[in-house]
Amino acid sequence: MKLGSPEYLEEARRRSNADKTYCSMVQNDLESYTLVLLAEPTKGVKDTLTIGFQIDHGSIPEMWTGERKTDFTLSGAYGVWVDVLRGALNPNKALTMRKLKARGNLLQLLRGADSTIRWVEILQTIPTEFEGDFARYNTGRGASAAAGRSSGGAG
Prior knowledge:
Structural class: alpha+beta
Distance between the termini: 24 Å
CATH topology: Nonspecific Lipid-transfer Protein, Chain A
Order of helices and strands: HHEEEEHHEHHH
C-alpha cells in the first residue's frame, strides 16, 4: 500500500485499534496529530504529504490527509519518516535530534514516547510502498517489483 493512501490510512487505523497493547497505552489520551512529510524532489518525492489522526481514549477513530487544526504537528523530510517507519531511526530520537520538528507541547509529546514507539511498530507491519529513491525500502508484496520500477527514473 502506498504510504499516505486512503487504503494505507484505513489499514493503519484498523491495526492500531486492534492492538490491545497500543489501545491500553493511549486509553487516557485525547489528542490530534498532523504529520508533514516534506517533499524531496531531488530524491523523487515531488509532493509534500500531510496526514492527520485523532486519538480518543484508547482508539484512533479517524485518519485523514490534508491540513486540519491539531494539538501537535510533526514535520520532517520524507526520508526521515521513511527511516522512522523502517526502524532505522527512533521517532523520539528524531525529535530530540531535530530531524523532526514539533509544534505543540513538547513535554506532553515526549510523555507519550512509549506509545509512539508502539504505534511505529504497528505501522511497520503494513506492507508499504514509498516514493522515489525510497522505493528501495518498500515492504511486503510487490516490494521488489516497485523498487525496480522506480530505480531507473530518479536523477
